[in-house]
Each structure stands twice: as C-alpha cells, then as structure tokens.
Protein 1
Amino acid sequence: MSNQSETMGRIGGDEKGPESGDLMDRRGFITAVVGVVGACYAAAIGYPVYRYLASPVEEAMAAGAVKEVTLPKEAMDLPQNSALMFKFGTRPALLIRHEDGTYTAMSAICTHLGCTVTYEPDQKRVFCPCHSGVYDAVSGKNVAGPPPHPLERYEVEIRDGQIIVRRS
Amino acid sequence: MNYPVWNVPYIGSGLVIGIVAIVHVLVSHFAIGGGLFLYLTEKKALREGREDWLKRLPGYSKFFLVLTGVVGAMTGVGIWFSIGLANPAGTSTLIHNFVFGWATEWVIFLVELSLAAAYYYTWGRLPSGVHVRLGLLYAVSSFLTLVIINGILTFKLTPSSAWLSVAGTGKEAEHFFEAFFNPTYWPSLALRTLVCISMGGVMSLVFFSRLDSEKEGEVKRGLIRWASLWLLPAFVFMPICFIWYLSMVPESQRELLSLGISTIGVGAFTQVTRLTLIAILTTATIVGVVYFLAFLYPRDFEFGHAIAVLLLAFLATAATEGAREMLRKPYIIFDYMYSNGTLKSAVGKCNEEGYMVHSPWKINEGMFESGNLRGSLVMELGRQMFLGQCVSCHTVDGYRSMRDFLYDRDETAIGNILAMMRKTGEGSPYSKFMPPLVGTDEEIDALKKYLVSLTSPSKGKGVMEVTSGERELQGIVKGN
Amino acid sequence: MGKLLSEEVKERKSGAVARIYQWVDERLGLSEVIELAKKKEVPEHRHSFWYYWGGITLFLFLVMCVTGVLLLVYYRPGDEAYESVRQITYDIKFGWLIRSTHSWAANLMIGAAFVHMFSAFFMRAYRKPREFTWWSGLVLLILAMVFGFSGYLLPMDELAYFATKVGLSIPAVIPVLGPWVADIIRGGPEITGFTVSRFFALHVVILPALFIPILIFHLILVQKHGMSVPDGEAKDVRTIPFFPNFAMRDLAIWLITLNVLALLAALFPWKLGAPADPLKPAPMDIHPEWYFMSSFQMLKIFGQLFPGAVGEFLGLAVFTLGLVLWFLIPFFDPKTEGGLRARATMYFGLFVLGVLVITTIWGYWALPSTK
C-alpha cells in the first residue's frame, strides 16, 4: 500500500526537477503523441475495415466507370491464332484473333483465384497457369480445372479501322 | 552466371542475409541512438547536478561498448560475407560504384570504435567537460557511418536516372554523387535517424529496467521516464517521413504495396502489403506499450517488460526491412540488375546465345563423361539453370519451396508457366515481381525437365486429391 | 490516493469536453464508477503474470465479435456458403484479413482460455467464495469450444466438411439416443446446406445469447471477489490499484495481443480448400481442430482397447467423468492450506494437464503422414 500514493502521483509528471514548470505543456504534448499513436492504430485497423465494407461499391464504380475501350491501331495487325493483352479500365483483358479471322475479347482475370490467364495458340485455349484452369477461347466458358465461372466476355466491334471493346 | 552459386537448403541465401541484417540493423541503430543518448544524458545530468544518474552511466556505457563493438561489428562483417556469397553480381556492382564511399565508412568506423572505447575507459579520469565532448565526438562519428551506408542502401531502390543512363558503360563513377544522394536518400536518412533515436530509448529501457525499484526507485523513475521520452520524436515524425519516402519510390514499385489489399489469391506477391501493415501496427504498439508500462509507471517497469518492448522492436525492424527489400522486386538494383543477378540489358542476349553459354561453370560433354555426375546432361543443365536463375529467391523444400509450388503439375503445365515467365511487361503477370526467365529454348526445356523431377504426381491423385487445392494455395503463398 | 487524477479532471473542467463529461456524469454517475475502480486493489507478486490471461481471453472474444459481425456482412449460409467464403477470401478487399483474424483469434482465444483455466486451478482460485466464478468459467470454455466446432463448418470446404463429419460421430456413440441426436444436429443423415444453416444459427445467435450473459456474470463475480491470492503469497502481499495501474498494464498487454494476432493473420492467412464434395474420399490426414484432438485421440485409444461401440462409449464416459470431477473440484478442496486434499488436487490437475498434452501430441503424431 505504501507506494500507491506515489504511483498515482507520478501520472502528473515529475513533481521535482527543473522541468516541472512546463508541466502542462508536457502533458499537452504527451496527449498529442498518444493521439497520434491512437490515430495510427485507428488507421491500421479502420482502413482495412473501410475497404472491406466499401468493396462492392468500388467494384460497381470500377465496372461502371469504363464501358468501352478503343484499342490502338496496331491491334488490327494481330496475326491469326494469336492474342493481345490490354487493359480494360484497370483490369487486364485478352483480345484473341481466331484462325477464321474473328475476334473474341474477354476478361483475363481467372475466376478461380484471380491470376492472369493467357492464350495458348498451340492448343487454341485460354489457360491459367496458376492452377491449370482451362477456358474455351471462343465462349470463355470454364471447361477444365478449378475455375468456378466462365470469364466475362466483351463485345468486339470494328469501326473506322479500329477495334472497340465494350462491356455487353 | 559468372560466379558459383551459394545454395542454402531450406532457408535460402536471402533469409541468411535477412537474419544477420536484422540483428545488425537493431544494434547499429542503437550504436548511433545510444551514443547520442549517452552524450545528452551525461550533459543533462551534469547540468542538473544529478549525481545518482552519473553513477549509473559508466555501467551503461560498458553495456553499450560491448553490444555495439561485438554484436554490431560481427554482424556487420556477417552482412559482407553473406551478400557477397548470395548475390556476388549485385555486390560487385555496389563495390565498383562505391568503393570510395565504403573506404570512407571503414575509416569512420575505426574512429567510432576507438572513441567508444575511449569514452568508456575515461569515465572519471578526464575533466567532465572534456568527457562530455568526447561523447559528442562519438555521436557525430557514429552518425557519419549512417550518412554513408544510407547512400548505398537507398541506391539499390532508386539508383537515379543519371546513374542509370551510364550504367554498364564503365563511366558510372562520373555520377557517384547523383547515385549516392539519390531520390530516396534524404527521406530514408530522416527515417533511419528517427529509428536510431528510438533504439537509443529502447535499449536504455532494457538497461535501466534492471535497477531495483525499491532501493533505487528515484533514479529508476527518472531514467526510465527520460529513456521513454526518446521514443516520442520518432512517432511524431515517422508518418510524415514515411509518406515522404513513399512519394520518392518509383510508381511501379509503389503499386506492389496495394497488391495485397484485395486477396491472398495473387497471394504470392502480396507480402509487401502485409509486412507494411505489421510494421505500422507494431510501431504503434511499441509506443503504446512504452507509454502504458514505462512512462506512466516507471518504477514498476521491469526487465521482462523491457524485453517485450525489445522483441516488438525486433519485429518492427524485421517487418520494415523486409518490406523495403521486397519493394524492389524484381530487381536487386532497380531497373538495372534483376534479383538473380541477370542484367536487364542482357535479357535479349541471353535468350539468343543462351544463359549458360558464357558461364565458366558450365558442365560440358567432356567433363560429364570423366566426372562422377549422376543423371543426364540435360538434367544437369536444368539444375544449373535452376541454381542460376531461381535459388536467389526459392529453395527446393523450404522457404518459397519449389516442390510445394509445383506440387502435382504435369510437364505441359510447367512448360506453360515457363513460357509465360519468359515474357516481359503485360504479357506475364509475374513480370512485376519476378525476373524474366532467360535462355535458349533448349535451356528452358532442360529447366522444365529438371522441374518435372521435383513434382510429386502421385500426391495429387486419389485420396489426397481433396487437399490439393489447399496445398497449391500454400504453394502460391509461399512461392512468393 | 488518486488526488492528482481528480485534480486533473478539475483542471480540465473549463473545456467543452469537461462540460460534456459533467453532463453525462450527472446522469450516469461515471465518477462513482471511476472512484470504485480506483479503490479496487490487485495483488502484486511473482505469479501476477497469470492474472492477465483472463483479460487476454476477453480481448480476443471482443475481436471475435467485431470480425464476426464483419464476416456476417458477406457470408451467406446454406448452399451458397462456400461461394460466399470464396468471395470474402479472394474478391472482397481485405476480406482475407478479416477472415484470417477471425480464425486466428478463435484459436488464440481457446488457447488463452486454457491457460487461464489451468492458472486459476493451480493458484486454487476456485476456493470459497469463488466457486461460481470457476463453474461459469468452465461453462464459458465449453461454449467457446462449441463456437469453434460450429464455426469450423461454415466455409463448407473439404476440410470443414470431413472434420465436422468425424466430429459428429462422437455424439453418435451415445447409446440409444446418440444417432438421433447426431441427426438432429446435422439436420439429416448427411451434412448438407441444412447443416450449415443450423450451425450458422447456432454460431451467431444461440451461442452468443448463452455466452454473453454468462460472461457478464463471470466478470461481475471477478469484480465482486477481486483477484485470488495463491497460498504461498498470502501473507503481507503488495497491491496495486486496479485503476489506472493494472488497467494500463492490461491495455499494454492487449496491444501486444492485437499485434501478435495481426502478425499471424497477415503472415499466415487462413486458407480455403476445395469445395466440399461428399462423393470424394476423405483426405487421409483428416483431424479435428487442436482443441478437440485430445478427446478425438482418447476415443481412438479406447476404441482400440475395447473393440466395437463399447470402446467408444467407454471413452466418452471416462471423458465425461473427468469433466464432472473437474467441475466438482471446489467441493473436494475447499480450504485446506497445504493439506492432503490440496496436494491430491494438485496431482489431479497435473495428471489432467499431462493427459491432455500427451494425447494431443499423440494424436498429431499418429496422423497418417502426408509427406
């Protein structure tokens, strides 16, 4: 019990010593520091929680923000049975030119775990190297491996010698 | 592949550097912050006539001398050994550019060590004014070592455009100062100075927590309070300096930070985000713990508490240094040399002429027949490709294990992955974090055959099939 | 005592914050609570370390509540369960972090509760007048384990499916009633979307409704009786005020706990296996969560000693008997300082602890190797 009053007394800072004159200043300063640290904590916890809750909103905004993309003129020179990666908004997408000269555009994000898929000319299929997921190169349908859904397909239109990809 | 490969099983050579370096970072930052602490504390004690403080300082200065002189110096040399072995190409580039800088640092280091010893042995033998000034001299010289090494450390992430424009031409020395005082130099110096001051506080907490709360209560209260105040500047200015630092980091590397937000699915490459999260949280925890335990109740602050703070500091250091290193992916020297030692400019040449073709370590037909090597020559070539291009980050069965990652993939799947890894830019999702795979088709094929030998096809079938999803996920996460 | 703190409050009364504080204080009596908290004393001795474990458990429970509510935002029970957890883990921003934190906090909480229970046992904190604290604590631990069991199924991945299947075979060995009980819990003869819905209702409504009142009861009792002082330290023990000294230390420990939790959740994120498929063979190394490992292994041992349903029933009976004895300890060892019964109790505690540790290790060791 003997040291209680002393322990309590220590909260206010040193009662002795030369710095006791600016006791209030120091207390204010320490309060501010504790505030900064508290804010640091709040940010480290609050930020993930906010992003977590706002996720569907962001998703919808991102989906709504970009409706169509005009590919550079060089895309017209794409050889048959080959593919080109481009960005649809912020997300990677794939433009495939089939052997019959037709085009297919689809999202390049694997529906399994979000890796980027590639087109394999020798097997004429869309392949995800992360877990060997396979999609149909024309329809984007998931045909083998772990992917649960087909890839999202976009509409392709050729206008004024340029390829325009748009969300259907 | 101009150098032999140091293949450390299970943990990988990178982690060896990591373990040595984290201890070194803790102790060397203490060497700077603690020096300043000794100087300012002695000065304060003299000015305020605190005899009881002065009595405890020689003991502290002995602890300081032993810790920094032995552990600090040993781990410093340890870093030299390990980086030279783990990444000889990168180390050689650094030496060629900064040989003068390093020579200067070593001279200062000798001065620093001598001053630390002189400071300890002259307690009570010199007039107090002179002794205080000796302390100041030590603090300044130890800070100068940071001033120098910081230039070389930050160079790796931001080598400056001036240096990059002449890199590989032999005229790099003309841009010594641009490379040294590179874009992240000043924010990094500010951040590290703040860490030094905090480490001075943390180690002082450890030392003075052993004072007896009953018999030496008054001294303990004063010193613990004073030491805990040393953590304040860091935590006020750290966020600002951190933002300043990030603003100087190239955009492409800053993107790595936000990668881990959405998912662990691309998980492989999301460690930077996760480490940064831990670093921020741990830093805040240290301040919280020091405030609640040490500052409010300095007398009740015990050695165990201090060790808890020290462990947290260790954790924060490990997380920050780890994040800083990973922020540079896929380079060892940004935009110049990849983490496996391949030069960015040499990618085309390696693809054309072959990766192993100029290597003095290449095993050829003749050596193969006369030696005792097992397996086929192709397998041996594949193994050497693996050693040359993969083991600077991966191990076979341990840290970022290849066996876990490959799991039950067949030859086609591995071939597809390798084909993708040869691409650069948008063509390969891996190109943001991994060096492109280089070599001729024949060499890549040999690597594929070697990798196939690491797979475990039977595991993916039959009764174990159900967990394969999980195992592969682990592979991805570990395979970072 | 506490002069400076009240002075501090007075000094601040000039500001707007102080006026708000006063307004609230006049209506709710906050000062009385603070005054009461300041009068409370916590003994300080070389075993004080163990006092923090109850607080750690409580803190982790709070983390579970917060992260649990956050998961509830996106989780959908029933047939969509797996898909919704897949979305949380791979699509929703930071979803992996919330889920990992929830899972890690669950494991750490049960671990901390075990430490808390055994420290209370060996410090003989169950003695008069704290019998009800001991009993309510035991009920809380059992409920926490049911929490864990029901939560484990919710993602409906392969591991969850088979672990639950194995787990539900335990009540099935009760004679006569067993199979019926198991069917009721499952909502059918097999684990389906119905089972998930049931477990979900249990996990987020029924268990919290039981747990929280008992927790409050437990905490009120702790406040009422104060900390128990172990035998050896009883004479002339030093104390520190609960508020602010002990509370501040508690807060520091909570910060460290949170940090450890964040570290585990961020560096070792909880994985999601392949979706559950009853037609596939069970993985060889299927096993329950670590806190059920001991009972799982004991059932296996008894099953081997006495073949057939008898063995499993015996195992269950022995386990139940042990639990009953553990409950009744306050009656066996009421207040005999250093006496024969006190020693017998200690040996019993060491025996129980030993059996739990050994069977758990044995259980993991006996798993079919996956390498």
Protein 2
Amino acid sequence: MIHSKQIQRQKLVLVVDDQEINRDALGVILEDDYEIIYAEDGAQALAAIESNVDRLSVVLLDLMMPVMDGFEVLKRVNADEHLNHIPVIVLTAEKNAELKALQMGASDFITKPFDVPEVIIARVARIIELSEGRQLISAAEHDRLTMLYSRNFFFEYAHRLFHYTPGLRLDAVVMNIEQFHTINAVNGRDFGDDVIRVIGAEIRAFLSESHGIATRFEGDRFAFYCAPQDDYQALLDRIQGKVNGISPNVSVHLRMGVKPWQEGTDPTFLFDCARAACNMARGDYQNPLKIYDEDMRKRELLNQRLLNDLRSAVEERQLTVYYQPKYDIQCDPPRLSSAEALIRWNHPELGMISPCDFVPLFEGNGLISVVDSYVWQEAAQQIVRWRDKYGIKLPVSVNLSRADVFDPTLVDRLARIIEENGLDFKDMKLEITESAYTENAGELLETVRDLRQLGFEIEMDDFGSGYSSLNMLSGMPLDVLKMDMKFVRNIESSATDMRLVKLILDIARYLKLRVVAEGVETAGQLNLLKDADCDLVQGYYFSRPLPAEAFEALIEREMNVERG
Amino acid sequence: MTLKELYEIIGGDYDQALRVLRVEKLMDKHIRKLTKGGVVEQLIAAGEAMDPAQMFDAAHASKGMCGNLGLKKLSDLASEIAEEVRPGNPRTMTDGQVREKLDEIAALYRRAVDGVRQYEQN
C-alpha cells in the first residue's frame, strides 16, 4: 500500500522573527514535522513567501521587527491574490496585537514565550489542515488552466442565480475551438494549453467588465452566463483576436453559440440551446457565431429525428444510391468512363431529404460510417448487375468519410466487399475529401497506401476547397484529383479562373494525376476544359445524379454509340 | 559547572528555558550570547541617553529573549520599561524611577554575564 506521506512532499513552514532565539525555539519545536525556512525581518519574509508561493504551508510571523514589521507583511500578503491563500500565524506576547492581526487577515496567533510546544504544534497543524481543505475546495471549484469555474460549480451557481434573482436577465453562451484535438496533435499539448489559457483570461477580462460567470469543461468547451450583449460578434472577435496573437504559424478558429435570455427558462435548457447553436457553427469559418432561434430549434428537432430514423432507413431501404456519370472528354464524342455513387434518402414522412441535410449531421457524430457502408455495398452490387446485364465494367466511385479513414478495420471491410461481390479492386474507386488529408495526415497516408497496394484507385475529392498545399500534394499516394466545382463555375467569364484551372491541370500532369472537373454545366465549360487537356468531367451538362434504373439509359446510349 | 548550576547562580529558571528551547544545546548557545553584547546592553545604553524609541525597541526585544532563556526577573523588568515607553502609552513613572529599573536590569544582567563567563571558563 502506498501511504500519503510517500506521495506528498514535506510541508514547508516559514518562520519570521528578528530574534534568533525565537527562530531557534520554533525551529526545534517544528523540525520533526516540517521543512523550515527562516527570515529575520518583513522584507526577507516577503521575498521568501514570493519565491516559495507554491510550496509554503504556513508562515509564522513576528509582529515587531526592524526594516518591515509583521503588520506590513500581513497587509501585503492579503492584498496579493497570488499570496493570500497562504495562512499566516502571528507570534506575539500582546493581547492588542492579537486582535489587530486577526482583523488584518491572520489565521491564528501563538503567544510568546513558546513554552507549551504541544499547543504550537497543534495550532500549526490545524491551520495547515484548514488551509489545505480550503484549497481543495477551491481547486474543485475552479479550472486549473483558466481559473474559470469547473462545470459542476458553474451550473450550480447558474441555477442559484436563476432561482434567487428571478429578475436577472442572463444569456447563455457556449464557445468551442475548431478541431482542437488536431491543434493539440500537431502543435503539442503545451500549445493547446496556451490557447485555453488565453481564452480563459479574455473571458475573465470580459466578465470583469460585464456581469456573469463562466466555466471551461470537456477540454475546449467554454460556457458563460452573462448579461445580454448588443454585439456577440464583437465579443467573439475580441477573444479570437487574442487567440490570433498566440502564434503567427497556427490558425485557431473559435465558434460561438448564443441562446438569449428567455423568461422562466432555466439555465440547463438555455445552455442546451446555446450548445446546439455552437454545434451548428461547426466548420463554418465564415459564420462562426450562431444565435439560437426558432429555425435552429426546428433544425435541431429535424436532426434529432434523422438521427433516430437512420436505423430504420437502412433496414427499410429508404436510402437510395444515385449515380452521376463521369465522362472522358478527350474522346470524341466524350465517353462514359465511370460513375460516382451518391446517397439520397427518401423518408416515408419527410419525403426526399437532401444529402446536405443529413451527411454533415452524420459526419459530426460518426454515424456517416453506417451510410457509407450501405453505399459501398449497394454500389458493389450495382457494378455486378451492370456487368451481368450489359457485359461491361463501369467503375463506380464511392466516398470515404473522415470517420472511415481513421477506422482501423477499413481496409478489411472494403476488401471483403470486393471479394464477396467478385469484383476487381479497380472496379470501385475511393474518393477522400481534401480536408481529411490535412488532419492526422500520417495515419491517413498509411491507410491510403494500404488501399492502393490492394489495387484501389484513390481520388482526392473537392480539391481546392480547403487548405491543401502543393507541398502536401507531392507526397500523397493519389491517382485522381477532383477539381472543386468553384474553379469551373466562372471559367467562361473569368480569364483568371481559367488560368487557375490550367495551372491545376499543369500541376496534376506534372504529378502524373488525372483530373476530374466537377460541376460542369455548359458546353462552353466543357470545350474550355477539353482544350486545356482536362481528362474527365462530371456535372449537370451530361447528367444529374440518377437512380440506377435511370442511369441505365446512359449506359445503353453509350453502347449504341459504340455500335453505331 | 553545568548549565543547571549556572542557572542556579544567575537566578534563572532552568526548567522554563528548557520548556522553550527543548534541548540544552540551544540553551547553551543562547545563554553564551549574553556575553557578546546584545539587546540588554542596547537597553542599558538607550536608558542612559533616555531615548524612548530605542528604549522601547531594546526593552521589547530583551523581554522576549530573557523570557525564552528563563531569566524571568530580567524579562519582567524589560517588560515594565517597554510598557512605560511604548509609543502612545501614558507615562506612569518618573525618569528617576525608570533609571532605577534600568539599574536593576544592569545589575541582574552583569550577574548573568559573570555567571556565563565562569560557565565558559569551566
């Protein structure tokens, strides 16, 4: 068994007295139980307190001393918030001085001469015990990094404010750091702690000017219950500004959700709403502030319903896979080259639900893997059906989400699907969104290399929509770049956009990657891309995403062209 | 001469000193310091000059030191002087009475110092 004495350092006691005989008398009484340091006057005492602030358990302080007397030491210690947690016991032979010292913040007094050592030992032990108890409560009450309240105390105090001061209007605010785990992983825990500290300090500064209380919990989540603000964007900008000053090399983005005060609504509900608003702002770097409103409430209810209904959607096959063709435009006429599998949800009560409404939701909580698995399985079976029906091999691309990429069983799961359906690895292409490459890149690269080694082709989806760098691109195990549709949108009217597209095509050629241009809608766009030697295009010009049966018309047309 | 014998010679309370300082080694260390000059001599000097501020500081310090050493009579006399000249206290003695007290202190102090010197020689 490990005893507490093995874990704890010996407690440190400072004895302050100008008389050596008094220092010796106390030293000999206390030396068996404590480590003791000495000071001969008030100035020395203050220096010793400041340099041992984290270790000192108690100060035994004479009152009448040269240079600086004990009363002045008491005054300064109590006025300093970094020192005033250290208990001070005054040493005196005078009744009047006892009362004055206690009124100035002394914890107790010891009467001179020190002729009853047992009393001194007991008093010192009791004061240390009381002080440690107080510090334990304080440590539980406050977050160590930010000195904001800990979660339980914060919600207890928020409820007290709500119940005891019903006229007080306070808004609920929740704030988060985007991708905090990645910031920690890439820049180290110390950097992450600095970010937390800076945010905590700025929140405390804000609350010193306004009414309110605040907490930090779950690592990077802050909440404050504060007087209503006219401009929450200004508050977010203020805190973001401080965070921006930490390092010029690391971008840290904050998001904030606010639920304004509502008569009779308790803090638990207000903070649930503020948290929902903050979650809505996840990843939205352009609009990181969300004020909870009725639309958001409806959205939240819808999200909850979609989450609840996902299982039955899979079981009852409400999820349908649509296929959008990709055409090789260097052939004349362009040839159907492959397809991308895209999920649709035909809800029995809500009707057709856009993937924009449920894919980000499921990505946020990992359920996207359920959807993705469904699509992979469906797509694999469809490839087989078309092969059997038309005698062709039409490769289909499927999406891998972030959650899939970091799933250690991914490679086996995909390999099993290929094997069970009697396919080649080339029959199914894997699209991984660009943003996944910037997170935990080492782990992702390893997975992608394993997949390529099996024979899968890897396509980087949405290239150019995020923050990928050319440097990163050169080291990627990739086969195809899917150029984000925003590059293609204006190439007919903007020479700059066209130049940018050509530049991407040049880079891809240099890296021996094929390029799929997404979002092609007009013949003009098609011709410009063809002239620029783009390999493949995908977009409404050729076809919107279609159910498998409707897609077959495209296959049949293609076969007629070949025969014709 | 033992420490206990010294205390008998100088009229000190050996047991009281031992209660405060716990070990003879510390009693020995501090009783020897009486001969090196110190707060009692400062008090006597301040009394000759009748400087109340210095008298108070020295008397206060002497009271504590002598009390710790079990020199009760010296400690009590120093305490009387300290209260007499404490800033803000009304005077209750004449200067002549104060001098008498200081003479008493000086005599007790000399007796103690002589005793300590004999103790050191032994």
